[in-house]
Design brief:
The chain folds into 3 domains: about 5-275, 3-Layer(aba) Sandwich (Rossmann fold); about 280-390, 3-Layer(aba) Sandwich (Rossmann fold); about 395-530, Alpha-Beta Plaits (2-Layer Sandwich). Helices cover about 30% and strands about 30% of the residues. It contains 15 helices and 34 strands. The strands form 8 sheets. Strands 29-26-28-27-31-32-30-33 form an 8-stranded antiparallel sheet. A 7-stranded mixed sheet has the order 2-3-1-4-5-11-6, with helices on both faces. The chain has a 6-stranded antiparallel sheet with strand order 18-17-23-14-15-22. Residues about 40-70 have low confidence and may be disordered. It binds guanosine-5',3'-tetraphosphate.
Length: about 525
């Protein structure tokens, strides 16, 4: 098959949710439905094995959280699906944001009793920024849920997204009886077996005509469902694949990930509607262009770096999302800054294992082992002349001054902090005056992870102390002179980030507002997209 045909059958997606909505359970069951794993529990079991191997990740083990995102590839019904896993803990949300830049579609999991939760909203906004189409999975229907129409209303109101249910549920909780496939008019029965594991396999189907439904459903449940469907049909638009791909409409599937209900239907929905790899914005020789998946030349960008995938080696693995061409093992690719890499051992991540990838295409994610040459946001291409945009940096919520117990090791500390910042674990700011190193993170947990890693990998005993600043903002201006003057006058509250970009370091948000008011020619921003070179 040509690279064009191969790319056209890639479907790369991520699952987003508020913690506890059921993302982990759903991920496992999608892999099961896609035939990537055999029995429920295997993903978790493998996770355990991996954790015991990497003992620096004590925190991960102790707290039962997964710090690292990864990708799982599986072949289903003619398509290659790449499921990008996003870390669940909210302290690591920046990682999640970056992972979404590599996805062409997202599944948004909602807890049927809770609807849209704060983290769902944040993640949704990132999807919207990138026009990523979203499929909604309303989970935990086996528990008491909000009214389906109220849930869809909430999606419509809070996300400004048209909802088009593909199925309609029959009650919820103890009375949950299943759902009607609205297109095929077939009813999928939910069979409850208290105390027993979920039955894996297709749900029993009965015809959706009134006679069959009446014969099989509790009369109250039947009446409730019919009323709901009538309301939905009169109030909601029909599903329009075009509006979905444009990011204006979401198809909705109901189910119970834990009970393996609706999961196969969700996978089928992905199969039917998830888009093939999108064209990506990039800059080539100073001009903005779109790189299509059909372009013959290989290109891609690094959206994540992970250290210690193999604790016996100090290697890092860069996750490269391919955007075009046919990648072949052993290829030499270049970054825009002129670094060259011969990629001899590209990794592909199947659900159960890692394999060496002989070939890969647009939409695929390969792991590129390297010794620190690659950074998050780097672009790789055959000629080193393509730079993709859009990997964001977010202003950290917490700033701390890093100190090492042994003052002789200050240089070491800086190297280690730079290295972790390159991985995208945390951010590093260097104030214009003095020799402080200010580390920024989204949450407290990241500092704890850093302390562990500093000890294990760099043999450094690090402390994080309160910093004189609490807020960091990037600065930019269309008039370089204005910015220069500002920096000259405000040395005590400015510095640079890892890329050398100017940063305003303020005590609080009020100071930022004041500085902005006094300096209208300068933009103080909480997000920085890696500049298009
Ligand atoms: P997350 O990754 O989004 O954080 O969610 P996760 O899958 O870990 O699920 C959170 C909790 O919700 C788990 O229960 C899980 O069993 C439960 N859950 C997931 N899907 C469903 C569903 O469809 N129905 C019901 N009733 N529960 C569901 P837990 O008690 O926190 O963990 P566990 O001890 O059961 O593993």
């Amino acid at each position: 098959m040509s690279h064009v045909t191969e790319a056209a059958r890639r479907r790369t997606f991520a699952i987003i949710s508020h913690p506890d909505a059921g993302k982990t359970t759903l991920t496992e069951n999608i892999l099961l439905a896609g035939g990537a794993i055999r029995a429920a529990g295997e993903v978790a079991a493998r996770g355990e094995a991996r954790r015991t191997r990497s003992d620096w990740m004590k925190i991960e083990r102790d707290r039962g959280i997964s710090v690292s995102a990864s990708v799982m590839t599986f072949d289903f019904d003619g398509y290659m699906f790449n499921l990008l896993d996003t870390p669940g803990h909210e302290d690591f949300s920046e990682d999640t944001y970056r992972t979404l830049t590599a996805a062409d579609c997202a599944v948004m999991v909602l807890d049927a009793a809770k609807g849209i939760e704060p983290q769902t909203l944040k993640l949704f906004e990132v999807c919207r920024m990138r026009d990523i189409p979203i499929i909604t999975f309303i989970n935990k229907m086996d528990r008491e849920a909000l009214e389906p129409i109220a849930l869809l209303d909430e999606v419509q109101d809070k996300l400004q997204l048209d909802t088009a249910p593909l199925y309609w549920p029959a009650a919820s909780g103890q009375r949950f009886a299943g759902m009607l496939d609205l297109a095929r008019n077939q009813f999928l029965q939910f069979e409850r077996r208290p105390g027993e594991p979920a039955r894996i396999g297709p749900a029993t189907e009965i015809s959706g005509d009134t006679g069959s439904l009446k014969a099989n459903l509790d009369p109250y449940v039947f009446a409730e469902m019919v009323e709901g469907i009538e309301m939905a049909r009169s109030l909601l638009p029909e599903f329009d694949p075009e509006a979905f791909r444009a990011g204006n409409m979401t198809p909705v599937v109901f189910g119970s990930a834990l009970r393996y209900f609706g999961v196969a239907e969700l996978l089928q929905t992905l199969h039917s509607y998830a888009p093939a790899p999108r064209a990506q914005k990039a800059v080539k020789k100073g001009a903005e262009i779109m790189i299509s998946r059909d372009d013959p030349s290989v290109s891609g960008f690094v959206f994540k770096i992970q250290a210690n995938m193999d604790p016996n080696h100090r290697d890092r693995v860069a996750f490269l999302r391919l955007c075009s061409g046919e990648f072949r093992r052993g290829m030499r690719l270049k970054t825009t800054s002129g670094k060259q890499l011969n990629i001899h051992n590209p990794l592909m991540f199947m659900a159960q294992d890692r394999e060496i990838a002989e070939t890969a295409y647009a939409g695929d994610v390969i792991g590129v082992p390297n010794h620190g040459q690659l950074r998050v946001g780097d672009s790789l291409s055959e000629n080193g002349d393509i730079q993709f945009g859009g990997i964001p940096n977010f202003a950290p919520e917490l700033l701390r001054r890093a100190r090492v117990k042994d003052p002789m090791k200050a240089k070491h500390l800086r190297k280690a902090l730079e290295s972790l910042a390159e991985e995208g674990v945390t951010q590093l700011f260097l104030p214009a005056i003095g020799s402080d190193m200010i580390v920024g993170a989204v949450g407290q947990l990241q500092f704890e992870v850093m302390i562990e890693r500093m000890t294990a990998e760099y043999n450094l005993e690090v402390m994080f102390e309160p910093a004189p600043y609490n807020v960091a903002r990037w600065m930019a201006s269309d008039d370089p002179k204005k910015l220069e003057e500002f920096l000259e006058r405000n040395k005590s509250v400015s510095g640079t980030d890892l890329d050398g970009a100017p940063v305003y370091l303020a005590k609080n948000a009020w100071d930022v507002g004041y500085a902005q008011e006094k300096n209208p020619g300068i933009r103080f921003t909480a997000t920085k997209e890696r500049a298009l070179a």
